[in-house]
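R.M. (postdoc): so does anyone remember the format we settled on? I'll just put the structure tokens first.
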């Protein structure tokens, strides 16, 4: 019975994760906005619930303390990340994820130090706290004003009440009722968790469909989407275009010596210089250290580099910078928008060696 209930919990978590990512509904390069924040936090919560169910099955099958510790930690994190996500959507201080992570790590360690029954009670107390906090956060505007928020709030309130009832029974009658078949047993708790996961996933998708998924102007996600759209426009007019990737090798030193904003100003100056130097070019900053300049391939690459360096040097006085930082270039020919997407993703996922040349 316990294994069947735990498998139902795993299935519910898998369905919840799938529904959340289906709710996003935008191409990879265009993700952003409040809906992306919700998918990030609630998706991690679903993954934690999925891992929790798997660890509980392993604990039942092999009587593993390590699996019990991992299950306890991820159970706490599954609910805590919901609270963190709700706080994020309400624009409140970002302490939810830190508190959740700290609680999960603490419970993981304590499971090895105290009897398993005591660790179970500590986990249950944590579930009461995080579920109640998340229920209150989901009822708070602006999230509380959205359709589906009431379902989230009521589900988590009832889940907190159920776990509080388990604690009350344990305090009054000991651990016996929690270990025997009954309304507060492990089997019933697993089934209740599966139902709660299913209801939370429905509420999350309901809420998510009402959230804005357009990246905010000025963000990297917005820059990636805008650059893709402009590149598509250029490719409709030219069979092949060139993407010139411009880096300032000293950018990390500039950020360290001055400020992060100073570094951003330097990169924006590179983009402005590119607009002056390259006719018909579109620019964007989809990565923190690279400016993309996309233009028809008719212009000679060496000429682009020289013109851009000169335009960049002319703009230095306007930002009160005495020196003229060096620029590094990469040139890539693009035949479709996917080529640009690959380039942008490569700059996000790994550092690139400075080089200058033409493809």
């Amino acid at each position: 019975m316990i294994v069947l209930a735990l498998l139902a919990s795993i299935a519910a978590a898998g369905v919840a994760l799938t529904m959340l990512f289906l709710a996003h509904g935008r191409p990879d390069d265009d993700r952003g906005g409040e809906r992306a924040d919700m998918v990030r936090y609630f998706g991690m919560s679903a993954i934690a619930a999925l891992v929790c169910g798997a660890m509980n099955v392993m604990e039942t099958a092999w009587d593993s303390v390590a699996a019990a510790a991992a299950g306890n930690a991820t159970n706490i994190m599954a609910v805590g990340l919901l609270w963190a996500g709700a706080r994020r959507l309400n624009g409140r201080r970002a302490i939810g994820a830190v508190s959740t992570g700290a609680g999960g790590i603490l419970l993981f360690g304590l499971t090895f130090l105290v009897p398993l029954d005591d660790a179970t009670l500590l986990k249950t107390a944590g579930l009461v706290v995080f579920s109640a906090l998340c229920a209150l956060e989901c009822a708070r505007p602006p999230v509380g004003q959205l359709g589906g928020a009431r379902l989230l709030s009521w589900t988590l309130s009832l889940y907190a009440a159920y776990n509080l009832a388990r604690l009350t029974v344990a305090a009054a009658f000991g651990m016996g009722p929690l270990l025997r078949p009954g309304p507060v047993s492990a089997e019933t708790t697993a089934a209740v968790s599966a139902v709660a996961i299913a209801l939370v996933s429905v509420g999350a998708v309901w809420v998510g469909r009402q959230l804005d998924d357009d990246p905010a102007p000025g963000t990297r996600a917005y820059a990636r989407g805008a650059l893709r759209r402009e590149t598509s426009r250029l490719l409709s007019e030219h069979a092949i275009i060139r993407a010139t990737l411009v880096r300032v090798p000293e950018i990390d030193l500039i950020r360290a010596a001055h400020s992060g904003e100073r570094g951003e100003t330097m990169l924006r100056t590179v983009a402005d210089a590119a607009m002056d130097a390259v006719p018909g070019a579109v620019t964007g900053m989809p990565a923190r250290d690279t400016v993309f300049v996309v233009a028809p391939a008719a212009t000679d690459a060496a000429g682009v580099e020289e013109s851009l360096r000169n335009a960049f040097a002319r703009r230095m006085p306007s930002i009160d910078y005495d020196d003229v930082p060096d620029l590094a270039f990469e040139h890539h020919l693009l035949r479709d928008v996917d080529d640009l997407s690959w380039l942008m993703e490569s700059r996000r996922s790994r550092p690139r060696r400075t080089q200058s040349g033409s493809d």
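R.M.: ...and that's the designed sequence above, right after the tokens. Also worth knowing: DSSP finds 13 helices and four strands in the chain. The longest strand covers residues 241-247.
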